Amino acid sequence: MPKMKTKKSAAKRYSFTGTGKVKYKKQNLRHILTKKSSKRKRNLRHAGILSADNVSAIKKRLLPYG
């Protein structure tokens, strides 16, 4: 049986923590930043953690070797 291919778009968007959680960069920090508060922009800088019910789909279908 051949190896499964990793979805490269998902590999660029998601990464795994040491405990197996899925980490991603939050959206809405690219442009039109003047109307967003400093607090909102500061919170968007930090990585988000994907909820547990979506982790299995990411691991199985998109990043099989992650």
Structure description:
The chain has 66 residues and is an alpha+beta fold. Helix content is 38%, strand content 12%. It is built from 3 helices and 3 strands; from the N terminus they run αββαβα. β1 and β2 form a beta hairpin. The protein starts with 7 loop residues before the first helix and ends with a helix. The mean pLDDT is 94.
Strand arrangement across the biggest beta sheet: 1-2-3
Form type = elongated
Proportion of helical residues: 25-40%
Termini Cα gap: 19 Å
Name of the level-1 CATH class? Few Secondary Structures
How much β-strand is present in the residues? 5-15%
Uncertain runs: none
Structural class: alpha+beta
| H and E order | HEEHEH
Number of helices: 3
- CATH topology value: Factor Xa Inhibitor
CATH architecture: Irregular
Query: What average pLDDT do the residues reach?
Result: 94
Number of domains: 1
The total strand number stands at 3
Radius of gyration: 15 Å
The biggest beta sheet is recorded as: 3 strands, antiparallel
Keywords:
alpha+beta, three-stranded antiparallel beta sheet, Factor Xa Inhibitor, 66 residues, 3 strands
Précis, in short:
The protein is α+β, with helices and mostly antiparallel strands. It is built from 3 helices and 3 strands, in the order αββαβα.
